[in-house]
Amino acid sequence: MPLEGHWQTVNTPLRTLTARERNVVIAVLAVTAVAILGLLLIPSDEGRTRAAEGCIYTVVAGRTGGEPVHGCGAEAEAICAHAAQFSDPRADAIVAECRAQGVATTGEPGGPFSAKRIR
User: Fold this and answer.
1) pLDDT of 56-87, one tens digit each?
2) What average pLDDT does this structure show over 20-25?
């Protein structure tokens, strides 16, 4: 059986916040909201630079997450030639980066097509 006035006793705050405490809570919430919006709206690719001429750099899906694929010169040409033999999304991403950087996607490294650049 409920006691008389029990609900009011349980739900009445012990004290109310002072104006200063309320202003501190509002300021903390405002700073937190601005920080969250800043993190969401600022692009995070500031460390990403364009690969040098004849080099490739891309991130593709790997076994445990994003796997960076990078190489320069003959290594880049070998990576591109190998990826061009497949038609899955991973290989398509590598070939797209090869074409964007002008690295050949045909031939063997050191072969007759290794010096060929796509433009």
Assistant:
1) 998 998 888 889 998 988 898 889 989 888 88
2) 96
| Contact between residue 105 and residue 81 where contact means Cβ atoms under 8 Å apart | yes
pTM of the model: 0.51
**Phi, psi angle pair for 75, to nearest 5°:** -65, -40
Residue-by-residue DSSP string for 6-73: HHHHHHS-SSPPPHHHHHHHHHHHHHHHHHHHHHHHS-S-TT--PPPTTEEEEEEE-SSSEEEEEEET
Asked if 103 and 54 count as a contact pair (C-beta separation under 8 A), the reply is: yes
Q: How many CB atoms lie within 10 A of CB 96?
A: 14
Rounded to an integer, what distance in angstroms lies between the CA atom of residue 84 and that of residue 93?
10
